[in-house]
Design brief:
2 copies of one chain form a homodimer.
Chain A: E1 30-33, E2 39-45, E3 48-51, H1 52-57, H2 77-81, H3 84-97, H4 103-106, H5 109-115, E4 116-118, E5 123-125, E6 133-136, H6 140-150, E7 167-169, E8 175-177, E9 182-183, E10 186-189, E11 198-201, E12 205-206, E13 209-215, E14 234-241, E15 244-245, H7 246-252, E16 266-268, E17 273-274, H8 275-278, E18 282-283, E19 303-304, E20 307-313, E21 320-326, H9 334-342, E22 353-355, H10 370-373, E23 381-382, E24 388-389, E25 397-405, E26 410-421
Parallel strand pairs in A: 6-22, 8-16, 9-26
Antiparallel strand pairs in A: 1-2, 1-5, 2-3, 3-4, 6-7, 10-11, 12-15, 13-14, 13-22, 14-16, 14-17, 18-19, 20-21, 20-25, 23-24, 25-26
Organism (chains A, B): Flavobacterium croceum DSM 17960
Keywords (chains A, B): Calcium, Hydrolase, Magnesium, Metal-binding, Phenylalanine catabolism, Tyrosine catabolism
Binding site for Ca(2+) (chains A, B): 135, 208, 210, 242
Chain lengths: 426, 426
């Protein structure tokens, strides 16, 4: 079925500001709550949020096989479970419905009034119930930087790193949408000069610039997904801030990996941008040397050219750009990550989320964490207001932005913004 | 409210065979499906499964504040969310209802016929929808054994081990109830004499003898649960086999912890034994030296005397006992684990599961994995049929049993049994 929603010549009868992340070629999916406390699945064009539950009740999805309440739910899990063909049918239908030349909804004022909201009048919720969340570690630059700082500068990459996309399990219960503030964590740390650990607020709270992808039901337990089939089971992507407490992490992570240093909070952008929308931005991924084992060998362009930016905004201040990176730098692709994750028969469900790992680029201004940008706190960053940061201060807001752009169209993610509040002392 | 369900003198009008794990003093909770495809929450006395959904419809829980369909659900999550007071009221009610001296249901044949099933006529399902699953590493003997084998025999415990209950996140999607077979995983391993990794079926599939506890909604994000309050948020316990592929684990686990070596499958016993039922079996936990930080300091007996056994049963053979251990050997208690898990503000939800980590005792026959029992495969175990095992063979069934016993009563878990099927080659 053709992906007609990507037609770069289409214009919408909804106004789309210049440089908007959400032209009619995007059509992302999310969940929001209206002022009247109605929760619905929706999409976004320009600065308008569109109530797909209302659209469905008004018959605008007729002809597409959907359960009656598909879009009147508080998560996208069931829709995602319906599979790629349905995602494409629905996205195509929305493109046609909001096409400048289609009068059907455009000229129906009473319908428009119940379907279209200003984005400032709604609140975005978590788009999926995340069953399991996995985080990978797939940027060679990031793994090298961390290896240089914490292990051996001469052998920064561990022996397995070039052979498999290293990953680990994270915690779903503390993943929150953009806009929800998070608290500095308490925890146990071992100061450099101490012989026993101390307890208190983490002193080294950091962001990690990541993206994440959302899967559909992909396999039954015991069976695997091939690298060639993997992309068919990916619904879309979000921006992801994997909040990290570096001092807690350093003390706890050997031998079983990061735990409390990560699971106090993670933040995602609320609109899931579909793989269909990202299709025009495919590009080559870095050459893999040595060649991976056959189950990880891929053909074609499986990377995506997504510009990524991180800003820090102090309380009552303006935002300062602290990193510019790109998703295309990732050594391991999403297809390889999903093939690896399931090669042992691990079941993947609709709504599962898999993070990329910190996305650091080749230059110092493209590193994806304060740990790397300040090289462990040695080289503080200066913000626009003249203040310095080694890590994130209380009441700072960290904002991740991401977008793809070519001569025809800009497809963006909006932002993943979250404020770090002080520790709750009790 | 008194915990009258524990009265050791109570007898049931349902016959309870000698040495049954399920006397009327147990009253565990589970979910099962009947021959007629009805899914319900239930309990067990002797060899009878009791349909609590039917009991509720017949009015037997009148006077207890419950939603109308509380027990007509396919998971215990909502019931667990109701909290400790409700759990106790329901368990007390069931004790009274099945008391030998209570004629109400005993003498109502038509009611009995729709409420009581033989256990061989039902199929046990997963009792909860597990949101997040965490596995700890809290047996000092196990951590020491592993440290001796893989790291430094002179410094087997890592520096953080005595200061905090080391834990990591696992995967919920592949946790299955007793009786569901699991497949040997495929994966990437690095042979000792090789310079590049190979791909194929794991050659070193192992069990891990564990228990796990199930939590209720315990806190909001950012807030913590004190060690003194922690037990109030634990609903009950199950037996747990944390299937492990040692060769995959060895190659993948540095630096972010075990991943595909664990997430192909984990098995649990299907009846959740409540903390109320386990109350008579409290005992002291090992002395902790050095004294942990204040947030981990506990008073009173927070360990439980639970006898644990592991059997291997070859295809068409009889079961051979390969390990006898006890939950009381655990260095870190469940209360400490939960306090540590939430000290950073990590939210815990109803139905979350936390594994103990491998429960190895002080003697060689009490080790909780083949890795330790055979000391890395050096000392194979002989089974009753004369065959030897270094690790688990295809078509072997691993059976974990667990029970508490004092002069008055035996409270057991039934079993966690799962067969290892060959790899699915495709």
């Amino acid at each position: 079925m053709p992906n007609i929603a990507n037609d770069p010549n289409r214009k919408s009868w909804i106004e789309v500001p210049e440089n908007s992340d959400f032209p009619i070629q995007n059509i992302p999916f999310g969940v929001f709550i209206t002022k009247d406390d109605v929760v619905t699945i929706g999409t976004r064009i320009g600065n308008c949020a569109i109530d797909m539950g209302a659209l469905q009740q008004l018959g605008y999805f007729e002809g597409i096989e959907l359960t009656d309440d598909m879009f009147m739910q508080d998560t996208l899990n069931d829709f995602i479970s319906d599979g790629k063909k349905t995602w494409r049918l629905v996205r195509n239908r929305l493109a046609e419905l909001f096409d400048a030349n289609n009068p059907k909804l455009r000229d129906n004022k009473s319908h428009r009034e119940v379907v279209i909201f200003k984005v400032e009048d709604i609140e975005m919720l978590l788009p999926v119930q995340i069953g399991d969340y996995t985080d990978f570690y797939s940027s060679k630059e990031h793994a090298t930087n961390v290896g240089k700082m914490f292990r051996d500068p001469e052998n920064a990459l561990l022996p397995n790193w070039l052979h498999l996309p290293v990953g680990y399990h994270g915690r779903s219960s503390t993943i929150v949408p953009s806009g929800v503030p998070v608290h500095r964590p308490l925890g146990q740390t071992m100061p450099a000069d101490a012989t026993s650990p101390i307890f208190g607020p983490s002193r080294l709270v950091d962001f990690e610039l990541e993206t994440a992808f959302i899967t559909t039901d992909a396999n039954v337990m015991g069976e695997r997904i091939s690298v060639d089939e993997a992309e068919d089971h990916i619904f879309g992507m979000v921006l992801f801030n994997d909040w990290s407490a570096r001092d807690i992490q350093k003390w706890e992570y050997v031998p079983l990996g990061p735990f409390l240093a990560k699971n106090f909070a993670s933040s995602i952008s609320p609109w899931i941008v579909t793989m269909d929308a990202l299709e025009p931005f495919r590009c080559a991924s870095p050459k893999q040397e040595p060649t991976p084992l056959p189950y990880l060998q891929q053909t074609g362009n499986k990377a995506f050219d997504i510009n990524l930016e991180v800003y820090i905004q102090p309380e009552n201040g303006t935002e300062s750009l602290v990193s510019k990176s790109n998703f295309k730098y990732m050594y391991w692709t999403m297809a390889q990550q999903l093939a690896h994750h399931t090669v042992n028969g691990c079941r993947v469900n609709s709504g599962d989320m898999m993070g990329s790992g910190t996305i650091s680029g080749p230059t110092e201004d493209s590193f994806g964490s304060m740990l790397e940008l300040t090289w462990g706190g040695k080289n503080p960053i200066k913000l626009n207001d003249g203040s310095e940061r080694k890590f994130i201060n209380d009441n700072d807001t960290v904002i991740i932005k991401g977008y793809c752009k070519n001569e025809n169209v800009r497809i963006g993610f909006g932002e993943c913004s979250s404020k770090l509040l002080p520790v709750i002392e009790k």
